[in-house]
Amino acid sequence: MNRKPKILILGAGYGGMMTASRLQKGNFHQDAEITLVNKHDYHYQTTWLHEPAAGTLHHDRTRMKITDIIDTHKVNFIKDSVVSIDKENKKVKLDKEELDYDYLVIGLGSQPETFGIPGVYDHAFSIRSVNSVRLIREHIEYMFASYNKQDEKDDSLLTFVVAGAGFTGIEFVGELSERIPELCEEYDIARENVSMYSIEAAPTALPGFDEELVEYAMNLLESRGVNFKINTPIKEVQDGKVLLDDGEVIDSQTIVWTTGVRGNSIVEEAGFEAMRGRVKVDANLRAPGHEDVFIIGDCALIINEEINRPYPPTAQIAIQQSYTCANNIKALVKGTEEELEEFQPDIKGTVASLGGKEAIGVVGDRKLYGTSASTVKKLIDNRYLYLLGGMPLVLKKGKLNLF
Amino acid sequence: MNRKPKILILGAGYGGMMTASRLQKGNFHQDAEITLVNKHDYHYQTTWLHEPAAGTLHHDRTRMKITDIIDTHKVNFIKDSVVSIDKENKKVKLDKEELDYDYLVIGLGSQPETFGIPGVYDHAFSIRSVNSVRLIREHIEYMFASYNKQDEKDDSLLTFVVAGAGFTGIEFVGELSERIPELCEEYDIARENVSMYSIEAAPTALPGFDEELVEYAMNLLESRGVNFKINTPIKEVQDGKVLLDDGEVIDSQTIVWTTGVRGNSIVEEAGFEAMRGRVKVDANLRAPGHEDVFIIGDCALIINEEINRPYPPTAQIAIQQSYTCANNIKALVKGTEEELEEFQPDIKGTVASLGGKEAIGVVGDRKLYGTSASTVKKLIDNRYLYLLGGMPLVLKKGKLNLF
Asked: What is the interface pTM, i.e. ipTM, of the complex?
């Protein structure tokens, strides 16, 4: 009796989840034993997390039970944390057990990039999981609830610092600026007592975005009370304060760190050659020298040949990779290696939401502002749900208030 | 020209608010200048505060704008804090100004009684104002939100200690026990990870209440997971822990102090003879030796001659006092001192809510349990609104889900 080859997928983010979803189609479980491992029993939309972090969307809207999407007759699901990967012996150590594999898909996602700035891990929040954004939401409310209980009012309770004016930082501060007036109402606090800062080391907010759109976003957010400090590196984060390179100190009890991500340290620890936790994969999305290991999503490094720089890790690329990855695994299992596909990203555009009905974006050659950009953003969010779980999932979790 | 006598009411709790409301009736402002001073621009229902503290009722349901109730053409309203009372010179110092009076009504309410137990002010919450209960609600949520973010789970985050199993303590732990399952659902926490303690120094919960009803309440609350520690004095409160006299230490990040109240220290500092901040007033509700100073509500001490012990300070007594107080002020201003009334409490009953549709109570000679007690409790709450603002206020803020 032939043993069925074991396919092990680590991580149920965009890449891992979509790979599992692609593999379960066409009854591939008859040819291989497919296992998906994830820390939580739910999958969540990482790109939506700025909304529950600010409290403008409930976190349950951003997540779904994995076994509601994956057919467990076709794909085994194990809820456990990955501890380490032993690529020589083809084993993966989890918290509670050890698994072996014939083909491995690493989709373990990213970790916050601190650039070695002291105090970030100890004193700043990050937008990276349901647990972490729920804490940010409640922390912000707790600051508002505490303010009026103090005899000597401490304005650092109502000072909110977002470190990094990249994509996530701008999207979060956009939501926050929409949420602040509601919080002021709820906690009997005058709007002028609240401060918001968006701090960016680079010479511009949203580096790489169209200049005109960046200006639109900054004007809009400034009109909602956001103070921008661009070209201003952060020197250190301490308990209750942010120290800037230019000598300024901002007293704040709420510092949200969004200066970008790196790959997962488990990938580095496994001995793959990596840059900041990201492995430069081959054209088939495999780790160099390891034909049985696919790496996708935020742990995969792919060079944009046109500008000779890596593509930024996005949900869009992770989803596209999952198609190539699933097809290539099928080819390897079936022994039709001539059918291995090369991955080619197809960047359709980028839209950043700014809270409320505002957004900016580039789709193809078109620049979008305001409501039309916001609508496109929601369509993108819904499209992913459609790819993952069809129309029922769109109806259940989608953003149906399009305008 | 005759100067109109000045009537100054300090505090817009049950007593002060109802006195102002009584005085504005019958156009008494033509005879006297009436001023009401309060720290906030709203009046709130102190006896409902255990609900917003647990998060089972929004705090806006427990409060109303003072100028929505008081007609400012008849009664001046000043939003300010009372600093001190100079009874010899008939002046009251506020934060921002000084006022003089001909007749003073002190309705400044209570302060938590700590019995000198160390650490209470620094490490425990109390249920005494909109600001304080909003903080408790958010603190509880923050504990739940923090739990899953920790690598080493700290169960003290999910341990809730209510110090004092008197009226407020039992009502609060009742609401909390109703709220916990919702919080477990919201924050992905198993119910068995949460602990609740009700700790009481006296030999029984709800001292003074009918024994059979106390047993009913304790059985019900135990079935919802409350651990009772009766006859167990608290020795000290420290950051994150409660030390009991019997040597046990309970690790808890949330300690709510409800062991009773004392009168207001401003009354003591003004030189009135007081026991724990409460002044034993004369039959007309005046401070002994001060015919121009009325003291009502939690700062007034009235002896129940039948048992030779003070009546416990309640909303019921404060409201009854306001009628006597307002009538007596009118008599003094009109120079009809023979019409001065003597205050006689008329205790109609006591009902304690236990969360959900549960309550216990004694009304007249009847013991009440369960839904019928809960309905009576709501009728009592609505009756006060009716006395204060008539049917429109009942419809706006009342508890209309009677069964």
From this structure: 0.86
